[in-house]
């Protein structure tokens, strides 16, 4: 004879059944106004995070642009006869090598 388990009883092996774990969550019921308020707060928080990310990206882009312009000015230096100066170019390459060695 096979014994059938009672749906309300706990399983023999100590695990919870699917129904008992679902009933344990017991979320509070929210009315429409509360759900709308939570949704509005979530959207506002997401909007602020998005604006912060955009602001950071713009700041990074401006910083990189200034760095490129400064590097360009250093590398654009010429001698009296119009030849490029090699010192800044060699220093730039050396800095790149040092940076790649760190990583």
Description:
The chain has three helices and no strands. The chain is mainly α and 103 residues long. The protein has one domain (29-102). The N and C termini lie far apart (70 Å).
Structural class by SSE content: mainly alpha
What is the mean pLDDT?
85
Quote the beta fraction. Answer: under 5%
Number of helices: 3
Radius of gyration: 33 Å
Q: What is the percent of helical residues?
A: 55-70%
Order of H and E elements: HHH
- Sum up the overall morphology in one term: elongated
Total beta strands: 0
Question: In short, what is this structure?
Answer:
By secondary structure, this protein is mainly α. The chain has helices at residues 18-25, 32-75, 86-102.
Question: What descriptors fit this protein?
Answer:
mainly alpha; 103 residues; 3 helices; 0% strand
Task: Give the arrangement of secondary structure elements.
Layout: H1 18-25, H2 32-75, H3 86-102
């Amino acid at each position: 004879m096979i014994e059938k388990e009672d749906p309300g009883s706990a399983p023999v092996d100590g695990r919870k059944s699917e129904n008992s774990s679902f009933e344990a969550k017991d979320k509070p019921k929210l009315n429409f106004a509360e759900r709308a308020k939570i949704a509005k707060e979530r959207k506002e928080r997401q909007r602020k995070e998005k604006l912060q990310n955009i602001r950071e990206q713009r700041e990074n882009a401006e910083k990189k642009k200034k760095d490129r312009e400064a590097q360009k000015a250093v590398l654009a230096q010429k001698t009296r006869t119009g030849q490029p100066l090699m010192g800044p170019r060699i220093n730039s390459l050396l800095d790149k090598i040092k940076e790649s060695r760190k990583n």
